[in-house]
Amino acid sequence: MTSTILTRLSLLACAVALPGTALAGAPTAGELEFAAADIAPADGSLNKEEFTTTLPEGSKPKFVNKQFKKANFVKSESLTLEEYLVYIGDIEAPTKQELSFRVADLNLNGGIDLAELNTATPGKSPFINIVKTFLIADDDANDELSRAEWTLLKTGKAKPAKGEKFLKFVLADANENNQLTNLEFASTFPRGTVQAKVDVKFDKLDKNDDTFLTRDEYNPGAPKTPPAP
């Protein structure tokens, strides 16, 4: 039995990445408890039936449901090893920022790119607003938000550099060629705006019908050349 548990734990070490919880050396009592309960099926997580076996014998359904809900901070149908270790007090619970970072990091590469931030941003905020948020949060300008940068963003502590300006035209000009296509122009509208509405406004601004908007067409009277860096 012990060897089976140890084998399962070694597999868990490869399948589950737990910040601050490296399954190295002798397993802890909590890790052994988790592995012993993970039997039906042995999939690296505990469903409610498996979790029940870790509770006092004879625990009533109401108590089981309450404890499972308490442990299940990821809000899924089963408990990870991390959730179980937090539940029994072996490790600290991850912060809200850490949890939201994991959810946003869709490709699991340890960073949040602009596309992932767009997906993680609820509501209808225009895409250019999300671009602005990303540029402010990406303090080291490496096109990716680290956990530290993400935490600053989510806690409202990410601030733009002094004097930095974010013009709508510049934010929308994705390929930086000093003109806007219809698609780029659409990024200034709330996400989910019907294309017909974008087309009507675009055609009205595109005075020479060349399918591009210059700075002057987009905002008559504004500087016709990009601002100096």
Relevant terms:
229 residues; mainly alpha; Recoverin, domain 1; 3 domains
What can you tell me about this protein's structure?
It is elongated and about 80 Å long. α1 (2-15) packs across α2 (29-37). The longest helix is centred in the first third of the chain and has 14 residues, at 2-15. The protein has helices spanning 2-15, 29-37, 48-52, 61-71, 81-87, 96-104, 114-120, 127-137, 147-154, 168-172, 182-186, 195-205, 215-218. Residues 1-23 have low confidence and may be disordered. The chain folds into three domains: 2-87, Recoverin, domain 1 (Orthogonal Bundle), CATH 1.10.238; 96-154, Recoverin, domain 1, CATH 1.10.238; 168-218, EF-hand (Recoverin, domain 1, Orthogonal Bundle), CATH 1.10.238. The protein has 229 residues and is mainly alpha-helical.
